[in-house]
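JOB MANIFEST
job_type = single_chain_structure
chain_count = 1
residues = 256
[input]
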Amino acid sequence: MENSVRHRHTPWRSDITEVGADSLRTHGIDQRDIIKTFSYEEMVFFLLKGRRPTPAEADLLRAVIVSHISHGITGQSSLAVMEAADCRSGFLHAAIAGFSVGAGVFHQGGLAATMDELVRYAAMSEQALTEDLEARLRRRERIMGFGHRFHKRDPRAATLMEIAGRHGFSGPHIRTVQRMEGFLRDRKGIAMNIEAAGGSILLDLGIEPTIAHLVILVGRSPMYAALYLERLGQGRKPFQRIEVFDVIEEEHVPDA
């Protein structure tokens, strides 16, 4: 006689939402009230932290998200979106291409990498922080969140710090990034960029580095959509001629 096996099914469960007949609640609040009264950034914060943000917290999260929407068209992620449009790929595929190409630490992954570094530096004493930065400068290491290829002082970073100051909002990571900038400006004339400013604000809002790409996803998607539509409207053909701008100088051969 075969033994009968009784399988116990564990029901799906979440502390975030409650779903019932004609009813949906998020963290205990009726979804109808949320739709009527919550802004987008408030809802993001509410989902992640389980409480409605203060006006200052909501404004800072809004500013960080908006600051990441448009980075121009020179980044590799934007180029991927334009190439996808030229090939008449659908927008979803174009967006996936942009996020995949830009996911490396030197582009859209820079926010998460910077936040990881700020967590480490915020735990250091003033002397240890200075000594660590000195050693890294000697080794010519890249310090995430500082410097920019176009800006001597990233206007987005300055604006984010201005908004934080206006709200009187400061925490250990904002103070750390300001100390780092003071040191690096004195030594190398390097200022913080958008990732150091935005990353420090996110950390002091209680947002973990493990989900830093959330800001990239919700920030960059509208720019990708606008860029995709613009590119389609230009009617460009696929297989465009590629111009090579990186010129390698010929090796100098001395006269005989």
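[summary]
Confidence is low (pLDDT under 50) at residues 250-256.
Residues 213-233 form the longest helix (21 residues).
exit_status = 0
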